[in-house]
Design goal:
The protein is mainly α. The chain has a single domain (19-125), classed as Fumarate reductase/succinate dehydrogenase, transmembrane subunit (3 helical TM bundles of succinate and fumarate reductases), CATH 1.20.1300.10. It has four helices and no strands. The protein has helices at residues 19-50, 52-63, 65-92, 99-125. Helix 1 (19-50) runs parallel beside helix 4 (99-125) and helix 3 runs antiparallel to helix 4 (99-125). The longest helix has 32 residues, at 19-50. The chain is elongated.
Length: 126
């Protein structure tokens, strides 16, 4: 391909995104996941507040191992979206916009969200 030419097709496997690009894309993905999880959370909350049987049904659903695994995914989504959002806010006021600072802040987002998710998982499965 000649320099400056646009690709005819996009091959996601061959695209090499830098770390800040992955943080940005995963920020959007985590936001979508949180949005999709919202009705499920509201439904469970509504069920738990309906009556005693509803509360016990919601509690039993929350004790299921697959539900706990789903909660760990939601915890990652929330923590990544939070820390990446802080990073984006800092970059909006031109803090850490250089290439080196962007890489370090991207690593910090992954580390912070990973540690927060790990802490939640340890608490949840304990």
């Amino acid at each position: 391909m000649r320099p400056g030419a646009r690709p005819v097709y996009l091959d996601p496997v061959r695209i090499r995104l830098p770390l800040p690009g992955w943080v940005s894309i995963l920020h959007r993905v985590s936001g979508v996941l949180l949005f999709l999880a919202l009705p499920v959370g509201v439904g469970l909350m509504s069920l738990s507040l309906s009556d005693e049987d509803g509360f016990m049904a919601a509690l039993e659903a929350m004790r299921h191992p697959l539900t706990k695994l789903l909660l760990v995914g939601i915890a990652w989504s929330l923590s990544h979206h939070f820390f990446a959002g802080l990073r984006h806010l800092a970059m909006d006021v031109h803090w850490g916009t250089g290439l080196t600072q962007a890489r370090y802040s991207g690593m910090a987002v992954f580390a912070a969200s990973g540690l927060a998710t790990l802490a939640f998982a340890v608490w949840l499965f304990a």
